[in-house]
Structures are given as structure tokens and as C-alpha cells.
Amino acid sequence: MLTLRAMLTARQGVDWYETVELLITTAMRRADAGAQPESETTRAVHNAHGAWRMLAREDPEGAMELCEPLVKMLTHFSEEKRTQHVLNWVDKTRMGSQ
What we know:
98 residues, 0% strand
């Protein structure tokens, strides 16, 4: 049920912050439960990163707030490229605000 809610929320795209939080929670709960199919968990992980990218464009402050849980999730799923993308964005954003 949580997976369905996450996917519907992601498709609506109304509140990117809430969508990212929900997708992170969904991915981690699915992993903890060993939910099948694993492809649905992977989709939630990838969608969380994609939604976070939208959030970063529209609300950099909100995106910064979600960086830590997003990076933890991406690291958990060995998503090195996506993890590096987030960390690079954080570094670039912090440098620009100084």
C-alpha cells in the first residue's frame, strides 16, 4: 500500500518535499521487509532521487534538508552515481551561498 501511495504521490508532483520523504520511507521499508519484487524498491529509490532533483530546482532549502536521509538511502542501495550527484550539489550550493 505504501508503494502505491508513493507512486501516486510522485506522479501528482504536487509537493516535491513530501514526495521525496515518502519515496525514501517507502524504499527503506520495502528493503527492511524484503518486499518483492525488488524492481519496485529500485524504482522507489530512483524516483526519490528524481523527485529530489525537482525539489532542488524549486526549493533548494528544502532539498538541502532532505540531503542526509537521501544520501543514507542511496548509499544503502549502493547508488554511487546518484549519491555523488547529491553530494556534488550540496558542495556547489554551499559554495554559492558563501
